[in-house]
Amino acid sequence: MAKPSDPKPSEITPKALFYARRGLILGGTAALTGLLYKRFLAPSPSVRASAPLPPEIVAAGAPTVAVPDKKNTYEEITNYNNFYEFSTSKYGVAETAAKFVTRPWTVSVEGMCRRPKVYDLDELLKKFPLEERVYRMRCVEAWSMVVPWNGFPLQRLLAEVEPLGSAKFVAFETLFDPKRMPNQAERMLPWPYREGLRLDEAMHPLTLLAAGLYGETLPPQNGAPLRLVVPWKYGFKGAKSIVKISLVERQPASTWNQYAPDEYGFWCNVNPDVDHPRWSQKTERRIGEIGKRDTLMFNGYGDEVANLYAGMDLKKNF
């Protein structure tokens, strides 16, 4: 029989990381711990690790896409992060990544396309101005946030490079630089981090490349300078610090799926009816709240994306 002192499933270290980092405690933090952190350790609300977005990269008059949920605060979003290249402690990423340098930065878009190109990041952001998108974000560890991203639809970039008919998937690769991302030296995962989407998922208008949040440049701990945002999928699908985007014919390798395929599927659509092997996904804890709420199918974006998976067994293809 479980005792009150027993850990909650959401506080348990993912199996892959447990074996890679013996004895390290990972996973979600209990609500009380979060409140204590917020009260005694969190930085002052006046402190910013980033700066306002330059006006030339913000889309003038762009419509705001929002959800009715209350947005999480800047402090919550930037001080509770999964970014294992820097730290396995959610509260430790911000400090470890604070001096991460994001300029100069290039993004290569290549593979099965007619017009491959290596973009300078600033050139890219001027070409595709940023819109505000307020999205629900759900982590596989059963916690969630509501984040006001500043980004542009990935479909705009892909349309410019003109995918070939043979391109079926889009692969993403993040920076590999152990000097700048110190946890990569541990080799706890097969770096660099890789992720992938089906082409129609990547072309969906909800799929973003984000370079900011709350109208400010994206902080290092949130995936600076450019990250993937797919709001109907679990958070590990959001590749951070992207340096390469490839159009490919076959389903690409996905780091967590490759490392622990019994726990992390390639598709990773938010589905409360498919439990993680070690905990339920039926409920979630919104950061900043006490208690839990029901998890929504496709994270609440079913009306927009369910048609992408018509005929698929979403329990098998988790």
Fold-level CATH name? Sulfite Oxidase, Chain A, domain 2
Biggest sheet character: 7 strands, mixed
Q: Structurally, how many domains make up the residues? A: 1
| Share of residues in strands | 15-25%
- List SSEs in N-to-C order: HHHHEEHEEHEEHEEEEHEEH
The CATH architecture classification is: Alpha-Beta Complex
Structural class by secondary-structure content:
alpha+beta
Number of strands: 12
CATH hierarchy class name: Alpha Beta
Find the CATH superfamily: Oxidoreductase, molybdopterin-binding domain
For the record, give the distance between the C-alpha atoms at the N and C termini, rounded to a whole number: 30 Å
Rg estimate, integer Å: 19 Å
Describe this structure in words.
- With 318 residues, the chain is of the alpha+beta class.
- The chain starts with 14 loop residues before the first helix and ends in a 13-residue tail after the last helix.
- Helices cover 17% and strands 20% of the residues.
- Strands 3, 4, 7, 8, 9, 11 and 12 form a 7-stranded mixed sheet that branches. Strands 2-1-10-5-6 form a 5-stranded mixed sheet.
- It contains 9 helices and 12 strands.
- It has one domain: Alpha-Beta Complex (Sulfite Oxidase, Chain A, domain 2), CATH 3.90.420.10.
- Strand 11 and strand 12 form a beta hairpin.
- The N terminus is likely disordered.
